[in-house]
Amino acid sequence: AYAGFAAAYPDDQFAGEALYRAALARDKMGDAKGADEILQGLLAKEGVSSAMRLRTLAMVGGRYLEDRRYDQARPLLEELAAGERTAANLTMAGEAELGSGDYAGAARNLDAALVMQGVDSCRALSLRAKTSMRLKDTGRFDRDTQWLAARCSQWKGLGGVLLEKGKMDAEEGRCDQAAATLGELAKKFPGSQEAVEALFYLALCDLKRGGYKEASDKLETFIASAPASPILPQAYFKLASADFGAGNLNLAAKYYALAAESSNDPELAFTAWKNLGSIYQQLEKWDLAASTWQKLAETYPERDGIVEVLFDLGFCYNQQGKNELAYDVYSRIPDVTASEEQQGRAHYWAGMSLKGLGRYDEAIRELLRVPYLKTGGMWGVTSKLEAASCYELKGDPGQARSIYEGVLSAHGPASDWGRVASEGLKRIDEKGASGATGAGENPPKKE
Predict the structure, then answer these.
(1) Is 384 exposed, middle or buried (0-12, 13-18, 19+ CB in 10 A)?
(2) Residue 169: which of 138, 202, 141 has the closest Cα?
(3) Which of 110, 241, 269, 446 could be 128's S-S partner, Cβ–Cβ 3.0 to 4.6 Å?
(4) Are 157 and 123 in contact (CB under 8 A)?
(5) Phi and psi based region of residue 118 (left: phi greater than 0; alpha: psi -120 to 50; beta: remaining)
């Protein structure tokens, strides 16, 4: 009803309120994605009252903060804190800045929050202690942790300070210090969320040392103990990395898929899908690899690196004998890249796909475009040799001979290219003027 009212009367003064309530209703029904879509639309809507915008910023930013999507939370919560300067809003903005790496900004907002009435001093001070640690301000860190120990000893989030220290040590490769800090955390706060999460950072150190089995054990325990953790996608990703390092490719594929499917971080999801596709190729599961590359191409059409994904997709189609599909993929590449090397490779593989289909005239046209592009050397000569092979297959030995002789003259009979050209000339001489169409093999059938 609320959404219907907003759609029917978009300019009404109560349209924003209706959208907000529609989002709340979706959220209560368990449709978090639908709620987010409505709230994002409300943030983009013009003419919304400042009070409604602030409520929306608090809800959306708070959800992102809870999910540790700090980069997305930060601009929303900074706007909220600027528009309604309360201790709670400044604390949330500081937490988002800390999570996204703006330590100076976090320190400013947390300092401001701590002198205001109504501040949750234990939460704000623990966040400032974490910030001081990241800023290498040991004096302030020591003062804040002493204050926390004296006045917040029963506060449930106190273990977070130890966790942050262990996390920083693990990320920076100080694994002995990380183990000591996280071990202290486990003793002081056994069974806490922070103690369980410590397993993830201890596993990072195992991975750095090449201890794949130890890392897998810790990550499996973490995943089983914290199925709703915001860092679950990262845990799946690291578990996949551990399994890959140990040579367990099928398990690695399983966990890369889980990481990709569960992550809200497009960078982690892209990398997980990409690793999954590479593993399927290693396992020669061409259909699964092709499906993965196709998903990446559709989901991230303009992302850096997507051209290489298209090459992988075409390769998988070739391996399955689906040369028509492969040609369609390769023929798209020259239009989406400015790199002459990639353009040349695309024309080469498009030509090879057409050759596999028995469409020799089209293959020759594709292949002979390559030598005119800056491809680094090998592609141009190899494409000429393949074009000569196509001329043989279509029954034009004269054109084939011309290309082979040119390659032999340019590169000499001792080179790899020269040997291929010599073999081609030998074939032509043996067949004479018989009009044979083969090049040492029967022409492939068209699909």
Answers:
(1) buried
(2) 202
(3) 110
(4) yes
(5) left
